[in-house]
């Protein structure tokens, strides 16, 4: 694309010039934003592959307890060996100018510590969800990033995902009419021995890891914050997997407008993620909260007896969601903007999950 | 089909002879069981058309406040004019030997009175759901039928419907493994002026009329009785429709095994009925609680990595569900058996709906 200087100025006046430049060049520099990945598990691999698809983000550092694994990955991504850190010495990254930000991809209970240490090292933080295991940890993370004047973004990748954005837009435009209620589920049958089943690492059961997708979806679809929570937790399979966390959680939330949301999550069943929004004119459903394969369906009235039926599968493949997420973080860093999913977004989910657990503990006692 | 006497005796020994005879002939008589329909609204029409498909049931009486309408229907079904009653004089049906049973198809608040009057007139009772508007009414109905030694069956037509029976069997056989949770919804956008929106006639909001399908389905799928209830009600549309009943109800139930069920119902949105059962090996879903168009889908593991996918639409058309329901009631009368869905089944749903409303009123106050 080539633009005359005059055209470019006009776009600039419309606030569009920056958007039309490749990321990483927005401020006249060709330098990419460098990310140090903390924790080299499965999701870190998705993120790193995602950055390969970007023009503005690159992997410039690694933190791992496994030096061999880290060196293999460093070679693949062109990370110098000197930018591989252990958990003990990662604070040294403060001196590493090639690292602008970190991606915290550790078990939940370690999010707070590594976010705060990274902030103190002067690095922006992209932290996986759930943001933390407690409300107070989340608050400390926000405070630390604020004090260090670094960005804090929670990795709610679906906020940057086209099918999700389309669903939000359709609902907000009133396509299905006045929303009355929403149902949502997300879960899977977890294997024994996984870190998620260890409360010391995960902070809780399926609610924190997969139920959070239902919770967050109810909020981005309604654009309201829930005010009432009623929940039950249960464990049915006594096979050793659920000694420290519960197997199932189902809860109902009420929003200020009166919209009711019913959600369920599990580590004990095949439960493909979905939400279905019920409105006065029709319904809208999104299937899948995973890395690919989202599908939007809807059926709504547009005029007397005339109905529209939508069926829009998203054919984008993994790691496109991670690419989009990295693009947003990079853009926020380069333009000094607040991410769409800042720490405060993660904090709210932590507060609501705390309310859900609180309700469950009172209903279980009754 | 023709059977030799010997074959017939063998079937008889297997308890099957009676089933193979056309109903109404099971006890050597060709007389059909005669039903008097009380209330000639929409659902009565489905029932009456359903009896036309049976060999053992027929319409032999009508109770209506509209003599003209009743005479027109009487002519169609061969009911003598002398067997048309008003609400005031229907107790006279005691003397009418052609009437064995009544079908109570009135607004909910009238179910108790007309069930009890019919029992006192010596007639068996098939009563629409919800059985009544309160628990105590339901108890009175059961007591009255017991005292009069007549059958009381609640018209839970899906208990006699093939797709529902198949779903129950698949779940009970462990096809989807250990069930963890179920989600269900059923509702519609009710028009202003309908009797359902008048609490004096309906006894309550969408829970009683359409939410009851979710509630009852959770019970026939789990074969358990719920022990805990957490609910919210809300009204969003202040357009005059919801002055006496609420617009939305969402609730979560816990069963003794730990299974959690999330249900939602509305009179303010397009909400096609469904339930989805989540088990350790897979999921099973039934769409539609209506008079036709049910569809069973499932996806479950049968061996390492091998999965089975079911998609079984039920092509039976209305009024087949009503035919099957009439067949069952007729069979119970002829063989002096207790219906599969007796008054006690209806009473339980009334108790649970009372618990749901009680929870909603406490959560709404908080």
Brief descriptors of the model:
alpha/beta; Dihydrodipicolinate Reductase, domain 2; disordered N terminus; 6-stranded parallel beta sheet; 11 helices; globular; 8-stranded mixed beta sheet; Rossmann fold; 366 residues; homodimer
Walk me through what this model shows.
The structure is a homodimer of 366-residue chains. Chain A is an alpha/beta fold and 366 residues long. Chain A has two domains: 127 residues, Rossmann fold, CATH 3.40.50.720; 152 residues, Dihydrodipicolinate Reductase, domain 2. In chain A, 35% of the residues lie in helices and 25% in strands. Chain A is built from eleven helices and 14 strands. An eight-stranded mixed sheet of chain A has the order 8-9-10-7-11-12-13-14. In chain A, strand 12 and strand 13 form a beta hairpin. In chain A, helix 3 crosses helix 10, helix 5 runs parallel beside helix 6 and helix 6 runs antiparallel to helix 11. The N terminus of chain A is likely disordered. At the A-B interface, strand 7, strand 8, strand 9, strand 10 and strand 11 of A face strand 7, strand 8, strand 9, strand 10 and strand 11 of B.
